Please model this.
Amino acid sequence: MIYLAAEHFVRAPQWTWYILFYFFFAGLAGGSYAVATLLRLVGERRDEAAARLGFYASFIAVLFCPVLLTTDLAASWLKFWHMLINVTPGDQGLNFKPGSPMSVGVWTLLVFGVFAAVSAFESFALDRRDRNAMGDPGRPMGGVLGRAFNIVGGILALLLASYTGVLLSVSNQPIWSDTWMLGGLFLASGLSGSAALIALMTRYRPNAAFSLGRLHEADGYFSILELVVLVAFFITIIAAGTAGMTVQFLPLWLLALVGIGSSLVAARGHMRIRPAGGAAVVARAGTDTLVVSVLVLLGVLALRAAVIFSAQ
Amino acid sequence: MATTITPGESYGFFTDTSICIGCKACEVACKEWNQLQGDSPKFLADSYDNTGQLDAQNWRHVKFIDNVPDQTANAGDGRAWLMMSDVCKHCKHASCMDVCPTGAIIRTEFNTVFIQQDVCNGCRNCIAACPYSVIAINESTGTAHKCTLCYDRLQGGLEPACAKACPTQSIKFGPLAELQQAADVRLAALQSQGITQAQLYGRDDKVYGGLNAFFLLMDKPETYGLPNADNAGLPSRNDLGGYLVGLVTAVLGVIGGIVAFRRRRES
Model:
């Protein structure tokens, strides 16, 4: 379909389901690594168990990314490496174009994938080492170098979670190209979804329960950020005259708002929970976490679907 | 017009819509030379044009823009039907080329924009970027297709098939400088005849740095589905701003995480 509204006379690229789920998993992969790094570096020693859950989540999420990306290629998935290597006769070499967010994103995914894999395997090795430690996770490997590794990985993780929005903006599509907010919006949403995901995973790792309230608190801050950027996003597309195109996907926008609202409600409820609260409090918190996390993750997916489909 | 085609020189089209009769000979010649099968015939119920749009099978498309007044009181002042043979503009600042992550889209020795089929992997980033809705995916190859400005013919010293077939010389091919001169002369002639609405589109650098395939229009660009100079933005206009908002969000997000995860004294 070609849009003739406003100043856009452009064809839709038909980026649909594969790209939607790629954006979802890229947001969770980047967000989980960033949250895990923060837990490890600024959290208490008892946050290490939740940090390792974050590294596991990041690695598993990032595994989906190249599969979805290459499957979406219209030509052949065997040509995916043309993103990395220029095969133009006479111009062969590495292919990196700073002005193309897709090129930046592919390299980011590749390099971040190494960081995610190393951190996940480190977590696995630490968990094996600590399995007789009665729930007290030991220190991560590498000392200062290990922390530096996590920081570099965390920066790449933030880039991975946000570049997908910039990719959409660097186009001539209605909505997408009418705003600068999408990178920030997807990043804030990815961080929120990741905090919710790690909180959900703490249900299955008792020694990570200490971090539950802190994860919900972080999720609350990320959601406030997401809400602010979402408002800014709508202001910019209203100014551009393309906001009307979002109406047809109103249920998706509402679901995204439900996710944000759930995070805020949960954050308010959990900020007071401490391990000293007793087993009953932790058990109730676990039940809330399941509902809240599912709603937040659905919101993360719905937000991306709303943005992707509204413009096409 | 016999033209000697020299690599290293800029070539293009000057399409004078004031003398286009909508015969679609250009569409047919393009399909014949480039072995394009065309889309399945369909009735679009939109004027007398059933080609519809430029796409992977239609690298030339004659737009029929119906301005016939409901109450016909005059001949329409030459604007009742606007015919325009649309094509890839081969922009000097090409949006598609900017965003292509594979390097498949290149500028040729004739200063035209060309998609290398063996390099393209079908990511469709160029489709999202092209402001003229020119590029589309060929269903059989899965790669992005558009007008090549008959690259193979230029290499053989031949003018593009559409320009050769055009019976009214609405489509003129040649060195860009010569075409621009011819366009200036034609515009002056029309305006001296009182046709003040005539205007050149893409002749100067106000639209994407100038177009190698530029037009003489009989109405404002938007009427033909072309962005005007104010709205002709490159995708890269959002590059820095997009990353900047991402960076600010990242900093605030990290601060949020630090506040939430900071070490606290147990109460």
Residues 1-6, 276-280 of chain A have pLDDT under 50 and may be disordered. Residues 28 and 194 of chain A are 5 Å apart (CA to CA). Chain A is about 65% helix and 0% strand.
